[in-house]
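haha ok so turns out i had the wrong file open the whole time. this is the CORRECT one, sorry everyone. sequence first:
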Amino acid sequence: MPDIIQLLPDNIANQIAAGEVIQRPASAVKELLENAVDAGADEIKLIVNDAGKSLIQVIDNGRGMSETDARMAFERHATSKIKNIEDLFRIRTMGFRGEALASIAAVSRLTLASRQAGQNHAWQIQVDGKLISQPEPSSLTSGTTLDINDLYFNIPHGVNS
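then structure:
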């Protein structure tokens, strides 16, 4: 009898993982607000249209990200909050798994702009269902702005609706 177990392609596996982390628009909002707080923001603006399905925008004045960090933020299990196994027992942040942005990006059209204090400009990255653009210089005074559009656009109808 032939073998029947196969590895799922990355794009399917990412959508399934996203469904576990981002079960509804409120889950995305929660994750993004926690990231803003963890980034030291003391001002956070939230804009939501169509209950979050067409737009979730989070604007914060946190510490921002470098070009490399902005790119890495969309990789699964990429986090600034854990360096070794012992850190799991000393978690002092809200988010830590490194799943939120990767999961949101897998099921939305997303634009991230982020600028660290003292840098000449911000970096902007666009993601369309896991197709990640190269970082480009952008204007932003400081902090991070995330625009999530068309949440669940690439999920079969009926899932997460």
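The chain has a mean pLDDT of 81.
again sry for the mixup
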